[in-house]
Amino acid sequence: MTTPATASGPVQRGKFQPLKPPSEASLVGLLLERLRDSPKRRALASSGPTTAAIREWTWDELTAAAVDLATYLEAQGLRRGDRLAHLGPHGVDWILVDLACLLGGIEHAALHHDAPQAEQFRQLDWLAPQAIAFSGTGPGLPSGRLPAGLRVLDLRQNQGRAEPRLHNASGQAWLRDIPGLTAEMQRRLKACDPGACATVVISSGTTGRPHGVRHCQRALALNATAASAVFLDEPADVRLSWLPLSHALARTGDLYTALVRGSCLHVVSDRSRILEACQQLPPTVILGVPAFFERLERGARSGAIPDLAAALGGRVRVCVSGGAPLRERTVAAFAAAGVPLVQGYGLAEAGPVVTLASPRNARAGTAGPPLAGVDVRIDAGGQLLVRTPSRALGTIGPEEQGFDSHAPSTPQPESSD
């Protein structure tokens, strides 16, 4: 929505200076930076049932695996601009599919793994993908009900293969030729169009009706870079990743922020084991939703969690809540335990982060100032208007009759509500 002439209230502009992004900001460029400057730094960790079962992958291993999978997708006939629907649980394999799509210029349309199957089939109808990939573990979708002609790529851990695709033969070959891997990444970066659609995020927004939000790599890289700059993050940080990455909040706030900083993403697939995972590999940053932090608050107040800071591993520097307002008593309980808990605000069409507080400027009941480069104002009707460089390319959905799902997006106005 364009800002109306009757808009009231001053424009609030972001004050934080973000980390300098690549000259043509892209997620592929960020991954190449990690390969160049920190190839042996820990990039991913995945929790198992015991401390000894934690698996770790370095940035060169992750990059090699992503290049390998991108090559595989291309060998299956997918080309730049094609759309790949993807269904799989939260895990390392999910991340690998996302990175491979970025490297190949393939639109990644991730279905929410916990959505009803009937809804997933409806979304496939209006997404109109060229192929669908199943990752991780689980049954996928019945092949007999898939759209006619849809290619199926089964990447699941089956037929005796217990490891993610990170450790197949081709990935290992790249690791024996790091100069070759770097050259391949440079080639893919040169072929990358930062302004082309990179992903379709399925969001219900305020309407409750799922639709697809189309984002380019430039917008997502800029949003992750600006959000990262709010905090005093360090490369040695460990970010606890438990929110489904098919959602915009976790995709930018966890995965792409790790790409910006080169920090480790600790992937926890089983939400019932989050506190165990915090003991296995203590996090420094935890992103979550209000219900998660409120459950921890109740545990602390009831005595079930005698020491909240220790229960979270003893190293947490900040917790960030998004998705809905947070109760002030929850913030107070975390503060009393010595664990800063701040809020942010966003919407899928904005990348998604719009405003974000840090422990240095947080005020109870607020979601912080706008990110660098983001302007917000309240119009005469009390509606929030947002202008951001991370604006979506456009949206698609079941109610948009006659749309061409692969046509260039209609230019969007400078502000959105």
Quick rundown:
This protein is an alpha/beta fold and 417 residues long. Helices cover 32% and strands 19% of the residues. The protein is built from twelve helices and 18 strands.
* Helix-strand string: EHEEHEHEHEEHHEEHEHEHEHHEHEEEEE
CATH topology: Rossmann fold
Overall 3D shape: globular
Query: How far apart are the termini?
Result: 6 Å
Q: Order of strands in the sheet with the most strands? A: 3-2-11-10-12-13-14-15
Which structural class should the secondary elements be placed in? alpha/beta
Beta-strand portion reads 15-25%
Proportion in helices: 25-40%
Low-confidence stretches: 1-7, 159-164, 401-417
What is the count of DSSP helices, taking H or I runs of 4+ residues? 12
Overall number of domains: 1
Folded structure, characterized:
- Helices cover 32% and strands 19% of the residues.
- It has 417 residues and is α/β, with parallel strands linked by helices.
- It has a single domain, classed as ANL, N-terminal domain (Rossmann fold).
- Helix 2 packs across helix 5 (169-175) and helix 2 (59-75) packs across helix 6 (178-191).
- The strands form three sheets. The protein has an eight-stranded mixed sheet with strand order 3-2-11-10-12-13-14-15. It has a seven-stranded mixed sheet with strand order 7-6-4-5-8-9-18, with helices on both faces.
- Mean pLDDT is 87; it is low at 1-7, 159-164 and 401-417.
- It has helices at 27-37, 59-75, 92-104, 117-127, 169-175, 178-191, 217-229, 248-261, 274-280, 290-302, 308-311, 328-336; strands at 12-13, 42-46, 55-58, 83-87, 107-110, 131-134, 151-154, 197-203, 211-216, 238-241, 264-267, 285-288, 318-321, 341-346, 353-356, 375-378, 384-387, 394-396.
- The longest helix has 17 residues, at 59-75.
